[in-house]
Amino acid sequence: MKGESMRFARPTTETEAVEIIAQEPGLTRILSGGTDVMVQLKAGLAEPALIVDIKHIPGLRAITPEAGGFRIGAAVSGAELGEHAGVRALWPGVVESAELIGSTQVQGRATMAGNLCNGSPAADAVPGLIAANASARIVGPEGIRQCPIEDIPAGPGKITLAKGEFLTSIFLPARPARSGDAYLRFIPRTEMDIAVASAAVSLTLDDAGIVTAARVALGAVAPTVRLVPAAAKAILGTTLDDAALAALTAACSDACSPIDDKRGTIEFRTQVAGVLAKRAALIAYSRAGGKK
Amino acid sequence: MKSIHVSTTINGDAAEFICAPDESLLDVLRNRLGLTGAKEGCGTGDCGACSVMLDDRLVCACLVLGAEAEGATVGTIEGVANGDTLHPLQQSFIDHAALQCGICTPGIIVAAKALLEKNPDPTDTEVRYWLAGNLCRCTGYDKIIHAVQDAAQKMRSA
Amino acid sequence: MAFDNAPKRVFKVVGTRPPRPDGVDKVTGRALYGADVSAPGMLMAHILRSPHAHAAIVSIDTSAAEALPGVKAVVTAADFAPQDDDFLRDVQDNCMARDKVLYDGHALAAVAATTPAIAKAALRLIKATYNALPHVTDVDAAMRADAPVVQEGRSLETVPDGMSPNVTSHCEFGHGDLAAGFAAADLIVERSFTTAATHQGYIEPHACLASMTPDGKADLWCCTQGQFNVRTLCAAMLGMEASQLRVTASEIGGGFGGKTTVFIEPVALALSRKSGRPVKIVMSRDEVFKATGPTVSSSIDVKIGMTSDGRITAAEAHLRYSGGAFPCGTVDMGAQAAFAAYDLSAVRTLGWNALTNRPKEAAYRAPGAPQAIYAVESVVDELCQKLGLDPLDVRLKNAARKGTKSSYGPTFDDIGLVATLEAAMAHPHYTAPLASGQGRGLSAGFWFNFGGNTCVSLNVNTDGTVGITEGNPDIGGSRAAISQMAAEELGISYDKIRTIIADTSSLGHNDVTDGSRVTFSVGLATIKAAQDAVAKMCSRAARIWGIDEDAVIWHDGAAMPAGPNAGKFPPMTLAEIAAVSFNTGGPIAGHYEFNADGAGVSFGVHLVDVEVDRETGATKVLRYTVFQDAGKAVHPSYVEGQMQGGAVQGIGWALNEEYIYGADGRLQNAGFLDYRVPVASDLPPIETVILEIPNPGHPYGVRGVGETPIVPPLAALSNAVSRAIGTRLNALPMSPPRILKALSKG
Hints:
The structure holds three protein chains of three kinds.
Chain A: E1 7-9, H1 14-23, E2 28-31, H2 37-42, E3 50-53, E4 63-66, E5 69-73, H3 78-82, H4 85-90, H5 92-98, H6 104-107, H7 112-117, H8 125-131, E6 135-140, E7 143-148, E8 153-155, E9 158-159, E10 166-172, E11 179-186, E12 197-205, E13 211-219, E14 226-227, H9 229-235, H10 242-255, H11 266-287
Parallel strand pairs in A: 1-3, 2-3
Antiparallel strand pairs in A: 4-5, 5-10, 6-7, 6-10, 8-9, 11-12, 12-13, 13-14
Chain B: E1 4-10, E2 13-19, H1 25-32, E3 51-54, E4 57-60, E5 73-75, H2 88-95, H3 105-118, H4 124-130, H5 142-157
Parallel strand pairs in B: 1-5
Antiparallel strand pairs in B: 1-2, 3-4, 3-5
Chain C: H1 23-28, E1 43-49, E2 55-61, H2 63-67, E3 71-75, H3 86-95, E4 100-101, E5 107-113, H4 116-125, E6 127-132, H5 139-143, E7 167-175, H6 178-183, E8 187-195, E9 207-212, E10 218-222, H7 227-238, E11 245-249, H8 265-275, E12 279-282, H9 285-291, E13 297-306, E14 312-322, H10 330-337, E15 347-354, H11 369-387, H12 391-397, H13 417-426, H14 428-431, E16 438-447, E17 452-460, E18 466-470, H15 478-490, E19 497-501, H16 518-545, E20 552-555, E21 558-561, E22 572-573, H17 574-579, H18 581-584, E23 588-596, E24 602-612, E25 619-629, H19 636-655, E26 686-691, H20 712-725, E27 731-732, H21 736-745
Parallel strand pairs in C: 1-12, 8-27, 10-11, 14-15, 18-19, 25-26
Antiparallel strand pairs in C: 1-5, 2-4, 2-6, 3-5, 7-15, 8-13, 9-10, 9-12, 13-14, 16-24, 17-18, 17-23, 20-21, 21-22, 24-25
């Protein structure tokens, strides 16, 4: 019978977790917030042999200052993240993206790590993390490694973690002075929908309000969230004047290779991704202290 | 499938149950514990009719495993009234005709209570966004917002 | 039924806002809905559903499922009685497919087992082999001569020769000389529209608990809008007599018309009969979307001619509806409702129904009217725009009034359309300034409202309280309204009355809670039952006083002598008469049974302001006002609730809700994530203005109100968005990709 041998484990140390997972030959799902795993279980899309609840491993629910930035445990929920004044002040775009996932109820459970590891190209937390140059701490049978967030998504529903590996934390680096980030997504209602297109922009300005560094990431318009260097280049050395914004919009639309599905058409996603990038850039600019 | 034994606290009372590893907290509440106030409208976290409090967080019970209730505190609609005294939100919903069929009402009251405990003086927009995960198909939400605001005002002046 | 007296105008209880009797149970979670009960020894059942949009069933081998430990019964179509009647056979074949599966999700077998997990595992052991057939899901495609045929031999004689066998009916309404009418117009607009199928979206999935005993008697608990209809249908399918089957309606978590028929109930009964144990079935949300009763999808052409000063000279509509894989008569209602708001000398509506490989349609608030009126009101608005005329002025100029011969035949009595139009005209919303990027739209709307078979029993308790037994599930607060009408008629206080909804063994037949009929019909029957009880109480007082029955009248909750000649007796209150009832002849009751007619139509007008983001096509609803004629609002809060709830369903229908089918004919969005109903943050407050133009057919002037409010939003939103973006839209829903596309073209 399907799922007859499914087991539930609740390790209390990282080592114990690694061991339990390494010993399981069948499919293992990591349970943090559960807002994706539970849906997939119920739909019969996932038939794991083992579910590992990592919320009781020390440190995984902590937010700790580190090297001017923050290390955010993999089991920190969107609601907890939103209540942390420090992270919100440093990376408001990242925090607002995490707070857009689902409803208030989902927010009470969903985690950025889970959102990332579910591998959806439309994942709300991922573009902001990539724009922020965040990285992940991953443990597994071979030991511990750090990995830039943008190297983790591999395709719809796929990530680059090896069997037996799981994320224990996400590191948000220090932010240079005069910089800001923002995340925008398009959904047909005002809440509750999966992003049809999304954009995150992080940028740094000099004293004259000229963009000296930028990262632009697009979501839901390609098999994975995409960092778009050409879009960043379009606004470097500018004060986000109309020509720069038009170039940004065009570069973003060019970088799209979306699908037609029940949530949006190729045409719509391509057009709107550019619009969102433009609007997110303007918000990030203003957060960085730029005046327009 | 080997059943799991869980010890937890529900509406302030110690409770125990056994459940399958893949059983949701909603299944446990309704089918094992007889607490049918939380409703299954969708089973996928999209409607909020199963809203409960888990360790003081508003969650969808359909997205939580029964096993995760171990050592936690759970709050359901059955624990909102104080004995035979309705909570101001419950009274307000009746007074303002903020329910028609009532199937979404337990979830909305649990959710609204969580909001007012965190933010006793929300704007209408804040109330609407907080409750965005609670679908109502009967009322168009208008009287629900009035009822929540009226209860909030009464609670602030109490 | 005509009343000699004008409807009662001054009320004490009717028109107030007392608390509803089921309120405390619902806010505490105590109220019991379809899935909230269990029985000892209960089995759980699951249903095997077709993964194909259209296929012949070659064989179903249930032996491995039956052999699985824990499985107690398996049923297929073979377990149901053959039906001669087309209507019954369609309902039955929809509950369990016979020979062919006709849509993605069509049920073909069911298993009852000791646990849900075993039942689900057993489904996987059923070997069903299919012969996939070509499918068709689009209504226009289904009408083409070369379309895949969903069912043969279902076309009525009204269908012209040479059409696809998928076309099952044709209807025509109207009067006057169309050619002359169009010739007299200064401007003619001709447009085509499409609307996607939508679902009622009730939050409670269908659920039932059936318990049949070896002597052939059964109890059925289910969430339904009509327990008597459930009894009729299930008894026919199970080959039972009505008195053997007792159906109890649970509290219902929304219906809106979608719970007026059966889907899982006969299946649960059949499994219970076969297993000898109670069987519970609860649908999943996925099953609700795939295999209950969404609306028709439609393709509509409308042509209207207007003079330059706003008089409609001719109007014509062609409606092509599909109610899914079984014949459906909804297009008749759409065709009748389409031009109901207008006084026209030349009008014609033609309708066709075509079969498609989609689930069998069920009613959804004013079935057939939203689609047709959306198209008509959009064209009227376009004419107003092009001729530079005020849209409310034009509606007033052409409005149906008392004495108008309607486009569908009957001549209107007192109706409230003009009152709602004038109220809209006078309302500050109509003249509030609009910023750039914003648009305002309006639409009139209409529903016939129905009467129907109704029974009410009213019992007077010896302590002076009153119990009312009625048979219509309460979907909007009707128990309160019924208690109010009884309190009004008896002259006692509201809190002395308790109204309950009886099971099928406790009362005579009541038609389904639909057609906005309950406050009207059950209310009327309650008033009559109260009058019956009053007559009996007057007779008891007469006996106590030793005077003639004719000499006693009822006033303000008490019996009293009709005049000074009848005798000097102080009034006897209801409580006093009740207290001695055992000594004056026994318990006192009143009752009334009838097939109600005289339901009054309800007109409404909706105004909406929207703002459209020109770069993304996103629409924000800024302001919404509903004007509607309620005849007499018995409980104004519940009338407002119907207006607001229907308006918001219409907003969802106009902007986001739709059934999305893939090329494989399978439903792609069978959940609340991608079937997008409005959430709280999507909406502004919904303001309501109740007009009261009494219905002469009801003693208090009551009109049904529940259905009309879903009709105007579709065109009101479409007109608002079209005006905001400067391009007319002609398809629903107006999702952002469609709006953005229209913007880039325009």
